[in-house]
Batch of 2 targets.
Target 1
Amino acid sequence: AQSVAQPEDQVNVAEGNPLTVKCTYSVSGNPYLFWYVQYPNRGLQFLLKYITGDNLVKGSYGFEAEFNKSQTSFHLKKPSALVSDSALYFCAVRGAYEKLTFGTGTRLTIIP
Amino acid sequence: NAGVTQTPKFRVLKTGQSMTLLCAQDMNHEYMYWYRQDPGMGLRLIHYSVGEGTTAKGEVPDGYNVSRLKKQNFLLGLESAAPSQTSVYFCASTSRLAGAYEQYFGPGTRLTVT
């Protein structure tokens, strides 16, 4: 069975510093990986995806993610954090019929 | 376009009561999904549908039923609510066209069962 793991429940970063939110995956075959963001009392919003090709994927709001096959990781990154980036972030892997298996989520807090 | 909408936004039920959550999408998507979100557990798939008239079980289907009578609507039913079904429920949809992949989510329904 496929799965993703987000090892950190909470990540705190000072405004202006780079941020990383970690995700590792376990799948058979080539992984299709996603990052979603959830702001308070809202649904999930798509940030970016890795399907194939370049290991560095760029997405919305200045976020990017690095796919590393040897480490089975797909970490979310941003060079300079904003207070407005504070939210709940989910990593997910695609299965049959586009079903998504989500990680448990990482709460990102940007400290002014 | 409204995208994905969910009705109601909030609901409080007593144990044993029944209710139906409605999801509607106006993007002509073939695939639709119901997830539940619980603290520390991420989102878990309850049921999904790959087209009008078809439904299938996800990871946590027990205690729920679904129907997809129209392409744009996906209903989630609780026949006899239990406190363990207290959760936030999200509906999502996506296209089966190659290269689509992204799921679009509704705003959620917060359900409390007392």
Note: Chain A has a mean pLDDT of 95.
Target 2
Amino acid sequence: QVHLVQSGAEVKKPGASVKVSCKASGYTFTNYYIHWVRQAPGEGLEWMGIINPNSARTTYARKFQDRLSMTRDTSTSTVYLDLSSLRSEDTAVYYCARDGLVSTTGYYFDYWGQGTLVTVSS
Amino acid sequence: DIVMTQSPDSLAVSLGERATINCKSSQTVLYSPNNKNYLAWYQQNPGQPPKLLIYWASTRESGVPDRFSGSGSGTDFTLTISNLQAEDVAVYYCQQYYSSPPTFGGGTKVEIK
């Protein structure tokens, strides 16, 4: 049974950074890329980036390139999203999601974490 | 970036009837060399993550009831929910994965009439 379990809700001040974790289980961690997708309150879905858990290679959406970092720890099958210089517009639920294809990138998402609410407020 | 436009924004359907959701992409998502449409559909219930229903425009994900079907090609796609059940009340999103960044439609809310 595939599971992606994310860390808990965060409240941050503008200008701060946040780190969200996503622990994978039920499959071979290094065989599937992991994406991060966010959803602002009452809004739609926005892709942020992708990490290859095998090589640690990342690709970020253009709008986040200067303040987003994705890393992984193969010993714990965990990927991390680190977003800096937070502003109120970053208030959203952040989801990790597994790529639908094995050992390559399909860019559709077959399993999702439960989501982590990040609130940015002074 | 490819823009995905869904219609309608919301619809109300009687139990047992058919719901039809449309999705249009700003450019083709059909890759000619393999004749595959890079289009997925998701269902999202309140407070829950999205759930994959359909990929390659018409391939149902394992475990998804067969009342859900996807069709279309190129730039125009449809998700059909036949014999609507109470548990189908949700927001539905289309998503293209033809080119990066993957992009989503704005969502269609399905309710019971």
Note: Chain B is about 0% helix and 50% strand.
